[in-house]
Amino acid sequence: MLIKRPFMIASSEITPRPVYLRRRDFLRRAVALGLLGGSYTGSWGQVPAGRTLTAKASALSTREKATAYEHASGYVNFYEFGTDKGDPPVYAPKMKTRPWSVMIDGEVKRKGPLDIEDLLKLAPMEERIYRLRCVEAWSMVIPWVGFSFAELVKRVEPTSRAKYVAFTTRMDPESMVGLNLPVLNWPYSEGLRLDEAMHPLTLLAFGMYGQTLPNQNGAPVRIVVPWKYGFKSAKSIVKITFTEHQPNTAWNDAAAREYGFYSNVNPEVDHPRWSQATERRIGEDGFFTPKRKTLMFNGYADQVAGLYTGMDLKKNF
Ligand code: MTE
Questions:
Q1: Which ranges in the chain belong to alpha helices (H)?
Q2: Which overall architecture, per CATH, does domain 24-308 show?
């Protein structure tokens, strides 16, 4: 594990939000102007200066304090780069993220490749601070930068037959040392029902902590679905396919009894091998800290429960 330093109290906790946002904007501008050198230290701990993404704060953000950058970028699941949490930060920087395009295909009127630079300009960027709950019973709070996936869907015009969206991710044998491991059927793939994908909370993310995504977190583009277990949030996407039928997904193919298609965060449905009732917040909760209660739909029930009206969530886990 790459957790080295004690968690720092986020200034958002002790400073009124408008003041804290102004201060952070100053820090970002300072970074853009090169005033602070290669990185800056702010409410998120040390954040390396990369390509800054200007974004406006979103009302969909949680008020919980964000996990320090070093944990969000250092304690990572990206199996293509190895199964240890510390592997992706070591190997992923070798992956080339330019040129990059995302193929749009399937049941959609506007098919074809979309260049990442055009995708970045598709809609105004927002900063969305979301809880991320991993199926392994830990969680983080991450300030993502991106826009609702629905913005893309509207522009590519799905046909009336489109009911699902499938995400296919990058396979790069040069940098992805984990592709040699028979853990999953590569490429990593995920899927959502079209109405889930169109929900305003579903984010197409290009950055985090004010900068473009580090490779280990899914550069240059990933999906973030905050009410589902983290594995639904596919990283480094190269293809988005609109389909009539429910698509196969990598984890469901590997162990259908353990990982359902829906995988909504649900403290009442245990994983066959462990409880999902509680979680440990990375960077904050020590080994002896009592675990936090996991919330239904990861705390987003008010916004998303309506998507599942009438469904048996124990059966459709
Ligand atoms: N996407 C790809 N392509 N490969 C992966 O192994 N792991 C998933 C998801 N997306 C994964 C992936 C899992 S298990 C989690 S918990 C989240 O990414 C973690 O995202 P983060 O490390 O950026 O917080």
A1: 11-14, 17-32, 69-74, 87-91, 116-120, 149-156, 194-197, 250-254, 301-304
A2: Alpha-Beta Complex (3.90)
Residue 18 — very low, low, confident or very high, per pLDDT cuts 50/70/90?
Answer: very low
What's the 259 CA to ligand 1 centre distance in angstroms?
14
Q: Is the model's pTM score more than 0.70?
A: yes
pLDDT score of 28 more than 70: no
CA distance 8 to 42: 10
Q: What is the per-residue pLDDT for 40?
A: 79
What pLDDT band is residue 37 in, cutting at 50, 70 and 90?
A: low
For residue 82, CA distances in Å to 19, 20, 94, 179 come to 41, 37, 14, 8
Distance CA 20, CA 43 (A): 9
- Mutate-to-test residue for ligand 1 from 80, 170, 233, 263, highest number of ligand atoms within 8 A of CB: 233
Question: How many angstroms is it from 199 CA to the middle of ligand 1?
Answer: 20
Mean pLDDT score of the chain = 91
Query: What atom in ligand 1 is closest to the CA of residue 78?
Result: 6
pLDDT score of 24: 55
Helix (H) / strand (E) element for 179: namely none
Q: Specify the ligand 1 atom closest to the Cα of 208.
A: 23
- What pLDDT is recorded for position 49? 85
- Alpha carbon of 308 to ligand 1 centroid (Å): 24
Percent pLDDT > 70 in the chain is: 88
- Residue 168, beta-bridge partner list: 189, 239
Q: Using a 6 Å CB cutoff, which residues line ligand 1?
A: 76-80, 132, 134, 169, 188, 217-218, 230-231, 233-236
Ligand 1 centre from 303 Cα, in Å? 23
Residue-wise pLDDT tens digits, 262-279? 999 999 999 999 999 999
Question: What distance in Å separates the CA atoms of residue 139 and residue 315, rounded to the nearest whole number?
Answer: 24
Nearest CA to ligand 1 atom 5: 78
